Every structure is written in structure tokens, then in C-alpha cells.
Amino acid sequence: MQLCYGPMGCFTLVIIINSLIASSSGSIKEFKCCTEVSADKINATIIGFRFQKRNPPCVKAVVFETEDGEICSYWKADWVRRTLVQLEQARKSMNQNPTVSTDNNRISTKST
Predict the structure, then answer these.
(1) What is the superkingdom listed in this entry's lineage (predicted)?
(2) Which residue range(s) make up the domain with 66?
(3) Averaged over 81-91, what is the pLDDT?
(4) Nearest Cα to 68, choosing from 43, 88, 91?
């Protein structure tokens, strides 16, 4: 079976294949992850956090959500562990008390 009939047929086939590839690549979701982390303490107000598992090129990290955006932090840093404990305590007390604020570490949790 011959796919191309002459030079114009092959050229047309290449154009069709390229357009199919280009149109399908637009439906691929862009996945954003931390590829590097910082051990520096965050000065911005922390709104929330999530854990990111290692899955190259992504690295293992604690991703803090701040008012300025997401910050990728080294999960073994002492300040990260202390902050996670404080956030968990704030979350637990939020269930009992609707507003919790810790000014010294700039952690605030508000319930709506």
C-alpha cells in the first residue's frame, strides 16, 4: 500500500499529520511543580500549604501558599516543621474558635 502519490501527496500527508499533532498538544494540561526548594524562612503571610512528592523533575517539598503566591520550601528545614505544627494547631483551634491569629509568625486563619 502506497501512502503518498507523488511529491504533492507526501507533502499533503506531512501537513495533515503536523496539524493533528499541533491540535492535540493544545489539550495537554500544563503541570506546575517545584523543581527546586529554598531553606530560607518565609516572611509573607502563609495562607495554606500542601505536600509535594518527589516525581522528577519535581522534588519533594512543602509548598506554602502565601499572599504573594506559592513558595517551595525544603521539607526538612526546622522552621518548616515548626510552621506546619503551628498551622495544624491553628486549624484544629479554628474548629472551636472561628478566628485564629499568630502575629509573631504571621500565620492567620480565618473561617468564613
Answers:
(1) Eukaryota
(2) 46-104
(3) 93
(4) 43
pLDDT band at 36 (very low <50, low <70, confident <90, very high): very high
The total of structural domains in the chain comes to 1
Residue 28 in grid coordinates: 495537554
What CA–CA distances, in Å, run from 75 to 56, 58, 106?
A: 16, 13, 19
> Which residues does 111 contact at the CB level (< 8 Å), separation at least 6?
94, 98, 99
Say if 26 falls within a structural domain. Answer: no
pTM of the model: 0.59
Q: Is residue 64 included in any domain, yes or no?
A: yes
Collapse the DSSP code of 64 into the 3-class scheme (helix H, G, I; strand E, B; otherwise coil) and give the result: strand
